[in-house]
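Lecture 7, part 2: worked example. A protein chain together with arginine.
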Amino acid sequence: MARFSDPQDPLFQALNSSIAFDFRLAPYDLEQSVAHARMLAHAGIIGEEDLGELERGLEQVRREIEEDRFEVKPDDEDVHMAIERRLTEIVGSVGGKLHTARSRNDQVATDVAMLVRAHSLGARGLLTELMTVLVDLAERHVDWPMPGYTHLQRAQPVYLSHHLLAYFWKFRRDLQRFNFCMTATDDLPLGAGALAGVNFDTSRMFVAQELGFGGIAENSLDAVSNRDFVLDYLAAAATCATHLSQLGSEIVLWSSLEFGFCEVSDAFASGSSLMPQKKNPDAAELLRAKAPRVVGRLASLHGVLHGLPLTYNKDLQEDKEPLFDAVDTLELCLRVAAAMLGGIRFNRERMAAAASDEFIAATDVADLLVRRGVPFRAAHGIVGSLVRAAVDRGKQLSELTEEELRELAPQLDGEYYELLRQGAWLESKVSEGGTALVRVQDQLAQARHVLDEADE
Ligand code: ARG
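Predicted complex, written out as structure tokens:
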């Protein structure tokens, strides 16, 4: 700084300053600074008295921030400079010793890693809550039939529990992705200095242990340039937000009069200012719409990192806003999804009526033929002609007479009518992971087991 005689251009300052958004790193920066100061004293680089003063000053800064009394000054370019400036005001020149054997480059990488770890843990907690809501809902609607869809066309009936649990497993994978994010933040960057290491024999493992890192980044150049853990978090968040979007989208469809499968509570809906009969599932719509924003944050950071030479470049300051926005967006959406699903009401009759459409049993009739020795492809054709005949004659499949059946599918007999009794084809999906009740019960037990493990 001292080399510059001209004051900085205010426009440049506006571009360069990150304090407006990186101030939220303050709790991590303070924790890190305490650990660093302790290490400096432990290694004999500063005296015990200095450490006492630094700890006292950092504690006061922490309180000022916590109580919203911290005053940011115009020259505070970023959170790290703001804290050091205030520390020095409080404890005097000894405050200047804190930055011994440290650069803002390894400092900021460490703060961001700490934040990513904290919010990966946070996402895990919120996901677990959402997954618990899904399991509870599945248990309460375990045997409610509904149509399962492909191409948004009624395909085969399933139980509502089975449909809800499908999301459980998607969120389970998200949970695993956030677990990985915790691993990705496990190597401490601090101690790498500006890029090449520092001129003191510091004890990085000491700091790692103080801060809960499992180890240290082995290469100082990598340490200050690494933002992989931010990419990992954003990728996990993007996939998770996409799952929330898919879930939201179904709630929107199901809330329509055309489906009439569910109703979200008033607390998560709005009325129309013009049409008094309307209830809009806004929360679900916004869950649907937030995902691309998170995906965009991931793309932004890939753009920032693309082609970046080693090591620290100011570009890296642009890691923060995408990360923070993704954190806030995802955590809010996870909370909303859990609360909205907690108050949702499903309509048993509407779902059952949509699922009792007999044409939905076409695959089961084909399988009956297969059991009689007809190759599946041929069976498929035979059932196709049954369906066409029924549609042409304005009948349900079970309304075809025995004569009609003899003529179109001589391989079939009374078991055909038995099969078409409502519900029979749901309970026939007995394969592992299928929708038959026994399998859903297995699935529920597995899901409970996953939740118990996540609790530990
Ligand atoms: N505000 C900066 C950032 O977030 C801190 C690191 C600054 N380092 C530097 N050499 N200018 O990246």
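The first strand starts at residue 145 and ends at 150. The radius of gyration is 30 Å. Keep this in mind for problem set question 3.
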